[in-house]
Amino acid sequence: MADQVQPATPAVPQGDASFTENNAGRKGRFPARGEPVITGINRIGLWSLYIKEVRRFLKVQTQTIWAPGVSTFLFLVIFTVAMGREGREVLGVNFATFVAPGLIVMGMMQNAFANSSFSLLSGKIQGTIIDLLMPPLSESELMGGIVAAAVTRAIFVGGAVALAMAFYPGVDLSLAHPWAVVWFGLMGAVMLSLLGLLASIWAEKFDHNAAVSNFVIAPLSLLSGTFYLIDNLAPVFQTISRLNPFFYVISGFRFGFLGKSDIGDTNEAVVNGAIGLGIFNLLLAFAVYRVLKSGWKIRN
């Protein structure tokens, strides 16, 4: 009887067989495709992004920290010479002491905006934004790392400006309410960091970003009571000033040094302003998060 011929079994290439065996061995150890591997907060990624952003502005600290400190200090010199003659006093202190806190926090806010507005915009223009979008970072972590770095730069600039002003004749930087200095300084830096991040998402070139800085940020900061009391304005302009969130940052920060401000001379009035500013920042942060989540002008 002739032997029965068995059908030949297709030969499996050695590479395919090894691949199958490896996958079989790995089954159960790796999550399914599309299932997130990192759960919760990606602390390593968030810290890496923060350090990257901080090192970026520290590499050119002469331009990013000391130069803004010098330019803000020159504001103090010019305005005190022009308006501080004959022992002029505002809120019971000499003009230099009155204007110094506003200039410090104004420098902090403007540099927080400059730092956060550069991150995404430079990546979009240079084609390196993929380095921010590809890592396993959520939108909130991306926003948190960029904002935290911008706040860090704001603190450095504020310290540089305060150091220079401390040696200027007639300036007294004694603290009356340290909590107000910390809170309003941080809230002002966070607010401008978020605005800078939003501007960098919208902008398509550096000219767009400069337009926001020159026509929105600079006027709002200079017309917020930095160099004057809003009580000296007409009622309609007082109302407009009180709708400007920059006004509460500068006046609240000044309250921390002088114990007096346009908001009010009592803790209750300033605390109400502090709470309102905190709520405004939460709403702004949510808006920026939603824009990042949508991928508008980033992924599209």
UniProtKB/TrEMBL annotation:
The keyword Chaperone does not apply. GO terms for cellular component: ATP-binding cassette (ABC) transporter complex. One of its GO terms (molecular function) is ABC-type transporter activity. Pfam families: ABC2_membrane (PF01061). Residues 1-31 are annotated as: Disordered. The keyword Plastid does not apply. The chain crosses the membrane at residues 65-84, 91-113, 142-168, 180-203, 215-234, 269-292. It comes from the Bacteria. It is a multi-pass membrane protein. This is Transport permease protein. Residues 59-295 form the ABC transmembrane type-2 domain. Keywords: Cell membrane, Membrane, Transmembrane, Transmembrane helix, Transport. Belongs to the ABC-2 integral membrane protein family. It comes from Qipengyuania nanhaisediminis. Coiled coil: none annotated. Its main location: membrane.
